[in-house]
Write a structure and sequence with these properties.
Chain lengths: ~375, ~350
């Protein structure tokens, strides 16, 4: 059915196995609790979707957080109005994000380069500002939208009496919200589905077309292709991924605030994608996981931990070392992120995936093969 | 009528502030061809020069005076800032005028930061795609703001305007219209300050030989290089000037908005919108766009307008940007051939 080569099947199988076994794999590094692994999966989905736009077509959008936010709001409204089941919420999230992406994409894709970035940024800021101000009846403004006891929940009310207290998001009896394993496995399953779709897009003629647009859009136009529909399709697909991520976020924690749509949140997904490796399949997921993992670890560090770690040094050395390193941990986690990000952009534009490939070439290959790998990634002719 | 005049004044004030903030951004783009996402961080660094200067001025000597006691019976601590002890009245005056005086500190500091930034980082990105430039300067902006957060904390640090320029002033009196148009004094000062700086930058580019060479370099860098002029070095200086302009804009802005570490990011989005509307690399365009957006924004925040289109005041700037970008490919006054997709 799926027209994939053997190595792709292997990649897919390996990826699925790793994702499904995350609780076991992450045990030694202390990250094997569902709430964190959910985040890996959700941001992985977000980054995969962003990569379909940025990695394949080279269009750098600074407004993807808007789609994430819309997905979240749509999902929470589905919980409030219809049912606590996760499936309709996710469908609504994806649908509304796609509709919004269609409008935004139709307008923004008239321009390219920096102008496209600014246009998407403008749309994202507009929706962020509106969510905060005029749309308050829909979004509950600064407080954030959350479930209440007197929500109608029409579908649920038909079938059973509401229990006391706030209901939890469920999936046919499994509780999704509240940080259980069911929530993680829902996200993991979604991540694998998203990965398969991304894999198919990367290997399809459509994906080829998008890459051609990245390498030389004018030449594509001269050969008689109308590039706009392809770009729009890519934009909408990546918007749907963001919407799905937003929906899952709401499903695992049914509370959404406007800060989710701020442009710095769009910046975060850019960081993830670049860190992992732009235009690679696994890279964005890896980048998302690395950032979320270290965010979690570094933020919890403090002075005391550092003093423990460097306790073996003489005091005269320890003091300056610790006072320097304390810049980078705890509240300073963003500083680490910024520094690492700059280093990656400067020295390793292909991200972690390129680093791994270089190491692989260094050890695993005969000298002659290394060239072949390089030749497979020609620089686009400008 | 008054309401409209007030909005015009407000718009001019906002607009000139936008224009001043983005001047350096568009200058850098026009000369170096670099999209600098760290420009907001430079603005913020300028504001923190004012904070630092104020802190330096307020270093105090503490003397315990046994002859006087506090209400609790403990000996009174007499605190005198060193400047006042050393310089007497002039010290007090300096303390009052710490915000404008910190320009003296901001200029060398920002020039240094700008030149180091250009030589150390930006230079390596001339040949890389714009996306890479955006990303690396975005990373730099994060780094700068986090360092500032570490040293100055996360809370806004209010800075007072000099006492003579605090409070409000009736602009109507100056124009001979009686006691109308009450407006914050310092914003009027900022308006004229911005006009002066913008005028100075224009004059520098237009009337000096140095500026002429820079303009020639903006136009055709290669030919200027063939004439034996080291255009790279001049562009480095231009980057330094851009940093200084952003910095002193930040210094003078501190009484209006108490500086905190993420003020740069907030202004960044706005500045890019202004630059793109004006046309990338066009100085005149940036100023025109600044005024246009400032005036439109202050009119959109009038209650009469808000009653017709709710929420317009929050989105007007972005809306205008979208419309202009879609109808005028180069922005208001962009040069032909610069960044036309």
């Amino acid at each position: 059915m799926l027209n994939l080569s053997r190595s792709d099947w292997l990649l897919l199988a390996g990826f699925s196995a790793v994702v499904l076994c995350l609780p076991v794999i992450l045990e030694p590094i202390g990250a094997a609790y569902p709430a964190l692994m959910q985040k890996f999966c959700i941001f992985g989905i977000f980054a995969i979707g962003f990569n379909i736009l940025f990695g394949l077509t080279g269009y750098l959008s600074f407004g993807h957080a808007a789609f994430l936010g819309i997905g979240s709001y749509a999902a929470v409204w589905s919980f409030k109005l219809f049912t606590m089941n996760a499936i309709p919420a996710i469908i609504m999230a994806v649908f509304f994000a796609a509709a919004f992406a269609l409008i935004v994409g139709y307008v923004c894709l008239r321009r390219s380069g920096i102008y496209f970035s600014i246009l998407t940024l403008a749309f994202a800021q507009m929706s962020y500002n509106l969510v905060y101000s005029v749309l308050t009846p829909l979004t509950n403004g600064e407080t954030g939208l959350q479930l209440t006891l007197n929500d109608p929940r029409i579908v649920d009310a038909l079938f059973y009496e509401p229990a006391a207290g706030l209901p939890r998001v469920d999936l046919f009896g499994l509780f999704i919200s509240g940080g259980g394993y069911a929530g993680f496995y829902l996200c993991a399953a979604m991540l694998i589905i998203c990965f398969i779709i991304a894999l198919l897009i990367f290997r399809s003629p459509f994906g080829m077309m998008l890459r051609a647009i990245k390498s030389n859009q004018n030449r594509m136009r001269y050969t008689g292709f109308n590039t706009r529909p392809y770009l729009l399709a890519a934009f909408v697909i990546s918007g749907m991924y963001a919407g799905l991520a937003g929906g899952l976020m709401a499903a695992t924690d049914p509370l959404v605030g406007a800060e989710r749509m701020q442009w710095t949140a769009s910046g975060e997904v850019v960081l993830m994608t670049i860190l992992g490796g732009v235009g690679t399949l696994v890279g964005p997921v890896l980048g998302a996981a690395v950032i979320k993992y270290f965010e979690n670890i570094f933020s919890s560090f403090g002075d005391a931990t550092l003093h423990d770690v460097f306790g073996f040094l003489p005091d005269a050395v320890e003091q300056p070392v610790v006072s320097f390193l304390v810049l980078f941990v705890g509240d300073g986690w963003n500083l680490t992120l910024g520094v690492v990000f700059m280093l990656i952009v400067i020295f390793l534009p292909g991200g972690i995936m390129e680093g791994l490939r270089r190491i692989w070439n260094l050890f695993g290959r005969r000298p002659g093969d290394g060239k072949k790998v390089l030749a497979a990634h020609p620089r686009p002719a400008e | 009528m008054d309401a409209i005049l007030l909005q015009v004044l407000n718009g001019l004030d906002k607009g000139v502030a936008y224009a001043l903030i983005v001047l350096g951004l568009t200058l850098v783009f026009g000369t170096l061809g670099v999209v600098n996402f760290a420009h907001g961080a430079l603005f913020m660094l300028g504001a923190f020069c004012a904070v630092t200067f104020n802190k330096l001025l307020n270093l105090e000597s503490v003397v315990i005076d046994p002859t006087q006691t506090t209400a609790w019976g403990a000996p009174l601590e007499v605190r005198t800032p060193y400047v006042e002890a050393w310089l007497g009245d002039f010290g007090t005056f300096l303390n009052d005028y710490s915000v404008p005086a910190s320009i003296v500190l901001a200029i060398p500091v920002m020039l240094f930061i700008g030149i180091v930034m250009e030589r150390g980082l930006i230079r390596h990105f001339y040949k890389r795609p714009h996306a890479d430039q955006i990303l690396v300067t975005f990373g730099l902006a994060i780094v700068i703001q986090e360092v500032i957060k570490h040293f100055f904390g996360a809370n806004p640090i209010p800075q007072g305007a000099p006492a003579a320029f605090g409070g409000t002033v009736y602009v109507g009196e100056i124009l001979g219209m009686g006691q109308t148009l009450a407006y914050p004094w310092w914003r009027i000062v900022y308006l004229f300050f911005s006009l002066t700086v913008i005028g100075a930058v224009f004059a520098f580019l237009q009337f000096t030989t140095y500026g002429m060479v820079v303009r020639a370099g903006m136009h055709d860098r290669q030919t200027v290089g063939f004439l034996g002029i080291n255009i790279e070095r001049r562009f480095t200086v231009v980057f330094g000037i851009a940093a200084v302009v952003a910095g002193i804009a930040g210094v003078m802005y501190t009484p209006i908005l108490p500086p905190d570490y993420h003020m740069g990011m907030e202004f960044l989005v706005l500045s890019f919108v202004v630059v793109v509307v004006g046309g990338m690399g066009s100085l005149g365009g940036a100023v025109a766009a600044g005024f246009l957006l400032g005036i439109l924004q202050s009119f959109a925040s009038m209650n009469e307008i808000k009653a017709i289109i709710p929420g317009i005041d929050h989105i007007i700037i972005y809306l205008v940007a979208v419309v202009i970008l879609l109808t005028l490919p180069r922005g208001l006054m962009g040069r032909k051939g610069v960044m036309e997709d």
